[in-house]
Design brief:
Layout (H helix, E strand, L loop, with lengths): L1 E6 L4 E3 L2 E5 L3 E10 L2 E15 L6 E16 L13 E5 L6 H12 L37 H19 L1
The structure holds zinc ion (2 copies).
The site of one zinc ion (ZN) has 6 residues, from loops.
Length: 166
């Protein structure tokens, strides 16, 4: 049974805060009736609104996920989830709660520390200005030295140690 859904799911709980959906999600896929439930394969597209962990700006991330899940009728027997290759969710009545599956997949794919861009410059530690919007001109003496600079620093420390002995 193929399906093509468009809808929205509630707030997403992710590490470091909540992510918000930026518009409706679409889920296309196939639901197949199997012995003890329904097997669902779906492609989910949409986008979420996240906050950059470096510059704290909101940004959108496109989602394009392939989900696979099995929905089984709740039984009192302990679920054999460990042996399953796909996620198993409970059938609510006779309905597959795709929300649950989609939410699960999205949370799995979201980064722990979202970045608006790989090259995000973050905020100025002195004045707090978003450095992606331009340099603020603050002196940044605390900038860690590059690998090259560290080598030089070590050489200088070494040298001053020797000087100290003589
Ligand atoms: Zn950023
Ligand atoms: Zn600054």
């Amino acid at each position: 049974m193929p399906f093509d859904l468009r809808g929205s799911i509630g707030e997403l709980e992710v590490a470091g805060g909540a992510a918000e959906l930026a518009g409706p999600l679409t889920a296309k896929g196939v639901a197949t009736s199997i012995g003890d439930g329904v097997y669902v394969e779906a492609n989910v597209r949409g986008s979420v609104r996240l906050t950059c962990s470096r510059c704290l700006s909101p940004f959108q991330k496109a989602l394009d996920l392939s989900c696979e899940a099995k929905f089984v009728e709740k039984s009192d027997a302990a679920p054999a989830a460990e042996e399953e290759e796909v996620e198993v969710f409970a059938l609510h009545g006779k309905l597959c709660d795709l929300d649950e599956m989609v939410r699960h997949e999205i949370v799995l794919c979201l980064p722990m520390k979202p970045l608006c861009s790989e090259r995000c410059k973050g905020l100025c530690p002195v004045c707090g200005k978003n450095l992606n919007e331009g340099d603020c001109g603050c002196p940044k003496p605390d900038e860690p030295p590059s690998a090259f600079g560290r080598k030089l620093q070590e050489a200088v420390v070494e040298r001053s140690r020797k000087d100290g002995r003589t």
